[in-house]
Amino acid sequence: MPKMGELTLTSVDEFDFRLLIKALGKGEKGSRALTFDEACLLLEGFAKGKATRAQMASAMMLMRVRGETTEEISGMVAGLRRTVDKDWHSLEVDIDWPVYAGKREQLPWLLLVAKLLAKQGVRVMLHGDSQALPHRRHVESCLASLNIACCTTPQMAKAALHSDNIVYVCAGDLAPVLDECRQLHQELGLRSLIQTAARCMNPTNAPISLRSYFHPGLDTVHQGICEILFEKSEYHAGSVAIFKGLQGETECNPRVATTITVVNGQTDNIAVSSLSIPTLLEGFSGAKVGQAELSSDILALLWREQEPFSADALTTLMSRTMIEQALSSMTATLAAVLLLLSRKSAMTEPNTTAIITTEQAVNLSQQCWTNRFNSTDCPLKQWRNRELLCAV
């Protein structure tokens, strides 16, 4: 048996997974973190039934107590991606949008942004796990109000993307092992690195992927994960945008300035930059009261009404401050996506030489929302036609 720290990794079918548990748990002086390859093998082994539930639960708890390393989380992401059916990888998607946090009381205004992008030809894939934090309001519970399909197979998702440019998929349908991991960390009563890893799957290899976090320090963790996965060619060329989401969800908070770290991975080059969405609601207060009681049908009303502040159907259900917060959150989130799209165009299109500014992105976001029912006038059409976004 090899010494700890000198493990010889074999195939999933042949490996003795007790060695990994010993490496993690061999006392205060003898224990160590898993390497990238070891963490990847552990996840693959559990997915294939070669690592037992007891071994996986032990590993998750040992890593949680010590504090998971970026290498361990990155290895778990790579392992997850290898369990995803190749037909998911082959789907054509522009934006990978993980939505795992849910909100404590607000509705997911981000769905309005995703719907708008899809209406203008940007292909969006949302994925999440509404069972991980069942006390929160998850995106999955609001899909029907905006007629967004929830699909369980790559074939169903392909059809939805073809017809509507948008789809939602449950995490367990992308990687069934995630359902088993969720059951384990719910039995243990602990968060685990799997919850972070699931957000980082990017199962369709979309060129733009969003990442949100809530707790301080997770921004640097996500940045490190991206850098490792780009360096090891586990991620295809593209950009990952990392920011503190509204109540942890992948949506910008208009009440504060949002700093977005962008990790751009191209062939043999990883570059990190940042952009910022300004505060859109200075000194704002009073919107929280009554938000928990709002029906998901509000999303459909907001989408339909051209003049929301004077629409009786809305104003009888929402206060003015609620409407203002919802629309501002939508504006901020869409502005962030437009900045990412313009950067992508500037990097990949030879005739695109300019990148829009933050101010232009906010103004453009408002224009896109106003013109959401007129596909010919909506500025997003220019991006789909390979033209400059800033020419509007």
Entry keywords:
single chain; 392 residues; globular; Pyrimidine Nucleoside Phosphorylase, Chain A, domain 2; eight-stranded mixed sheet
Detailed description of the structure:
This protein has helices spanning 18-25, 27-30, 36-47, 53-66, 70-83, 86-89, 110-119, 154-164, 171-174, 177-188, 193-199, 218-231, 297-304, 312-315, 320-348, 358-370, 380-384, and strands spanning 95-98, 124-128, 150-151, 166-170, 208-213, 238-244, 258-266, 269-277. With 392 residues, the protein is of the alpha/beta class. The N and C termini lie far apart (66 Å). The protein is globular, with a radius of gyration of 22 Å. Helix 3 (36-47) packs parallel to helix 5 (70-83). It is built from 17 helices and 8 strands.
Radius of gyration, in Å, reads: 22 Å
Q: Name the helix and strand elements from N-terminus to C-terminus, one letter apiece.
A: HHHHHHEHEEHEHHHEHEEEHHHHH
Helix content: 40-55%
User: What's the pLDDT, averaged over the residues?
Assistant: 90
Second rung of CATH, namely the architecture of the domain at 90-177 and 197-282 and 323-377: 3-Layer(aba) Sandwich
Pfam families: Glycos_trans_3N
GO molecular function, one term: anthranilate phosphoribosyltransferase activity
GO biological process, one term: L-tryptophan biosynthetic process
Domain Glycosyl transferase family 3 N-terminal: 20-82
